[in-house]
Amino acid sequence: MDFLSGELAARFLGVLMIDLILSGDNAVVIALAVRQLHGKTRKRAIFWGAFGAVALRLIFAAVITYLLRIPLLQAIGAVLLVWIAWKLLFQDHEEPEEDVEAAGNIWEAIRIIIAADAIMSLDNVVALVGVSGGNLWLLVFGLALTIPLIVWGSTILSALMDRLPWLVYVGSGVLIYVAVEMFFKDRVIHDWLGGSLEGIEWMIGVGAAVAFMLFGWWYARRVRRREAAPRVR
């Protein structure tokens, strides 16, 4: 049977691996975005965030050949992802007047989740389309499998972030690493660099992620000290 063919089995395993690896990025974004929500509100935000991620992947899968022709699309997406990582990391430490509803607003969380998913889903879809080898059923299976993986992953991560706040910095660092990776994968940027950084992009990504996490830790300490200091009138 064709279903049992070695090639199809290999592609099936490939789709599983791609889903397990790439769904982690989406789970990190959702966990960061919902960490200030609680109970049923958090569960709803996680569900709709995962649903939005899969819906975007379906749309991108339908128009992937056109999207890949847009110059600097991934580079622009990388810059936007850095902004989202900044917003998610520092929303706890914004000035009070700027943070009135951010903490408990489910729609704000969903908006951030879908914006980040829109940026990261292009890479995910390219990988899934390539591994599935044009097999529509494998592609649909891979996209459908994304929902439980993202929901379970983000639920576990958000619970861990409640207990271990330092994981918030790690999560933001992951997003920075993904952003750097996306930037260097952009066709225009890759051609412009001429492969001069090939093999060390991951080092730049790790360095940027660590620098971002350290800056976040320093900034959080600075804000806490300022808030703890007595106010002179």
Automatic annotation (TrEMBL):
It holds the Pfam family TerC. It comes from Rubrobacter xylanophilus (strain DSM 9941 / JCM 11954 / NBRC 16129 / PRD-1). It is found in: Membrane. The keyword Cell membrane does not apply. The chain crosses the membrane at residues 12-34, 46-66, 72-90, 110-130, 136-157, 164-180, 200-220. It comes from the Bacteria. NCBIfam families: R_switched_YjbE. Belongs to the TerC family. Its main location: membrane. This is Integral membrane protein TerC. InterPro entries: Integral_membrane_TerC (IPR005496), Integral_membrane_YjbE (IPR022301). One of its GO terms (cellular component) is membrane. Keywords: Membrane, Transmembrane, Transmembrane helix. It is a multi-pass membrane protein. The lineage of its organism: Bacteria, Bacillati, Actinomycetota, Rubrobacteria, Rubrobacterales.
